[in-house]
Structure formats: C-alpha cells, structure tokens
Amino acid sequence: MITTVLVEHPWLSPTALLVLVVLGPFVGAWLSVRPRLAWAATALSLVPVAALALVPVDRELFSRCEVAWTLPTPGRVELAANVVLLVAPALLAAVASRRPALAVLAAGLLSAAIETLQALVPALGRSCSTDDWLSNTVGAVIGGLLGWLALTLARTRVRRP
C-alpha cells in the first residue's frame, strides 16, 4: 500500500528529505538544550519506523531475503523512502545524546535488527533486503550529519554575546 502511494506521488520522499535537511538543524539546535524533549521526540520518530517495518501485511512471500546492493535514488521510490525513514530518528538521537556517531551506529543496528526480524518472522509478510538496510543506513548517516550540524549551531549560539 505505501509503495503504491509512493509510486503515485514520487515527490513525497524527496520533499520530506528536503524539509528534514532545511529545518532539522534548527529544530535540533533548539532541542539541544531540552534533552528530555529531544529523547521524547526520538521515541516518537520511531513510531512510523515500527509501523512501516513491522506491522504485518497480507501477502505471499516469494523469497524471504534479497541480497542486493542498490544505491537509493529519487527514481527508486521505495529505496528513497527507506533513506528518509531513519533521518529524523538519527538526527534527534544525535542531539539528545550529543553523540552523532553513536546515533548513526544505533540507527544502522536498528535497521539490521528490523531486517533480521523480517527474515525470522515470515508471518509478518515482509521480506528482508540488504537494499533496505543500506538505504536506512544512508538515512542514518544523513541524520547524524544533521545532528552534528544542529549541535554545532547550538554551540555557536551560546558563544555569541
């Protein structure tokens, strides 16, 4: 269902990514002095991740896991959406923890755990893919970089008289 929406509206993922890139550092800088709120936002940003990756779907699986290494592009709508999926959680976790590299690592491991769960629980009706993990990890790196930028902006604001 979500893939159908993305195919019909291919501008959704790039637009969401653009909004995150433009607004994310400023929102992150604002949240940097509000760690509890930043952690709450991180948790809230994981709800769509869980819903999109773990809610069972009714379909017949032809294969459980696919091993492929396709880089995401705007033309590959599902892979582009997988990039966007972990940008916000990684950005928010980077700001909340003040450790962007750790947030990127955690998001990459979360993606690997999701793909493993999809492989081990065929009742979900979801197939695992290394492409999904790669796209999610690219999104996590983008989110980590945005988190680093947000923390840098926050430090710059504090230094100004």
From TrEMBL:
Membrane-crossing residue ranges in chain numbering: 12-31, 38-57, 77-95, 102-121, 133-154
Species of the source: Nocardioides deserti
Entry keywords, A to Z: Membrane, Transmembrane, Transmembrane helix
Taxonomic superkingdom: Bacteria
VanZ-like domain ranges (all copies): 27-149
One Pfam family of this chain: VanZ
InterPro entries linked to this entry: VanZ-like
Name of this chain's protein: VanZ family protein
